[in-house]
Amino acid sequence: MKVVVGLGNPGSQYTGTRHNIGFDVVDLLARQWLAEKPQLKFQGQIQQVTTGGQKVLLVKPLTFMNRSGECVQPLLRFYQVPPEDLVVVCDDMNLPLGKLRWRAGGSSGGQKGLADILQRLGTDQVPRLRVGIGRPPDQMDPVNWVLARFRPDQQQQVQQTLASSADSVQVWVSKGLTEVMNRYNKSSDS
Q1: Where along the chain do its domains lie?
Q2: This prediction's pTM
């Protein structure tokens, strides 16, 4: 079983914000893969799918970003899923809007939801897909930036980014981390 965790904050006031791009990727995958109706378990919204013969859980923690590990850690323990079969999809201010970066592990890079997951799992060897949301304009508080919605002139690029992110997760599920890193880290560098 593979587990895809998209990070975000619950509540309509956060829908469409930069910080919720992980939720948006999971929602797109659920539509593309015709996922079952969501269930509320482990303080998260969980949908099970089978794609290419592989069982996948699509997860949106409903604990608020900074406590995402409260959902992920007990879920992995219950389903006996090792960290290498988990991918965390999260926003990254240090990448330009639209740029994707797959990593096998490492630090959280300041992403507090990812940091909480790593801390609760006791390892930094957790695959993650960082989705670029760009830097805030000068003098803008980074918190206000990530909690703001994308501008109307960015919507087309955001939709393309979501589609590329979902495609890359499909590659991860079917062909593994090395293949997805080779394909998407290279193409997103150009």
Answers
A1: 2-189
A2: 0.95
